[in-house]
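Narrative of activities, Objective 1.

The group set out to show that a structural description can be obtained from nothing but a protein's sequence at a throughput compatible with the screening campaign. Below is one input-output pair from the validation batch, recorded exactly as produced.
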Amino acid sequence: MSSEFLFVSVPNTDSTDTTLRNLHRASTSSSTLFKIDVPTLLVGTLDSLMTLSDDLIKQDMAVETVVKKIERTHQDLSKTDTGIPVNGISKESFTSNFAWDYAKYPHRRPLKELVQLVTTGVASIEEELRNLSTTLADKASSLNEVRRKKAGSMLVSDLSSTLPDNVVSQINLLDSDYLKTVFVAVPKSLKKNFQESYESLGSDLVSFGPDGNRDSQKGSPVVPGSARCVMEDFESSLFTLTILKGQYEGGHYEGDAFKAGKSKDFEDLFGKACRDKRFVLKPFKHDPGAEGRNKVELEEGAAKVEHMQASLGRWCKAHYGEAFISWVHLKIIRVFIESVLRYGLPVNVTTAVYQIKSGKGDVLQGQLTEMFKHLSPEEEEGEKEEGEEFLPYVCQKFNLE
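Output recorded for this entry:
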């Protein structure tokens, strides 16, 4: 079924039936014609009509954007291209069988108020969609963060919450006054290089020269032979090392002033030495219950996202029809206003909608232009602006795709 429509309005030079027959002749090979009953709306002044006509261009685009956004959201959630029904029927059937909703859009309201009634309702729908989409995005982001911590490479994951208890139980974790076990994540491509060079990491951190000249000899805080590969994933290997925790630097005199000694912590400095070699020193604090809590957090996060997706999907189905109906009414209002501006008062026009066959839009408009060319005003030379397209009939294109 074609999703391309054309709303058309022409004056009744004879009877409505004669006008409809003329409109039908233009549709025989290119489209299917449907008659639309448009109520006589309150016209107001010419100036107000012209202003409203200009404003409706932007408002029409804004309403279309909301309708399309709901469609895309529903498609993304359902993973299908199945359309959402409008009042229980397809959007194509609703458009071709359009009937004005007098209860929702009273036709004796001033045109400006009527347009505001349409656009305000759609704006409220858009705001609600934005809030729901933001909530879903936040929940999905939280879930992805939990998954990243659990399933991501050890180069980026949080070991304290993801390192399995059965792995931790096999490690002799030291944290004494002088020694500490640290974890280093190494890219797979650098594993051999790490195993051959880890004992020299941070080779300028530890001072062990003779008294009075302590800095004359430097070394690494790593305990030789302490490296153990405890775990591997798709892109990295996790090693444990034993390092010296720190060193006391004695005080000294600067002139007559004595500078007190201080403790030098090696862990942060050792981490920098690792980064220089593209290794990652990983902070770790053993929490026996972390693995179970992560599993629960992952399940709860997935359930929240699934529930929110289902809720948003139902919301799209419930509100799509309202937004789409508003859009069609706005199109009809535009056709009515342009008809008054083009043909004047009293309003005596026939409005119809063509459902255009695939690729036949230009054929239809050519036939209509030829049929109603007598409605074109006599043009003086130079009166028509360059590139301006003037059609002898009022029309509004309506593409539902």
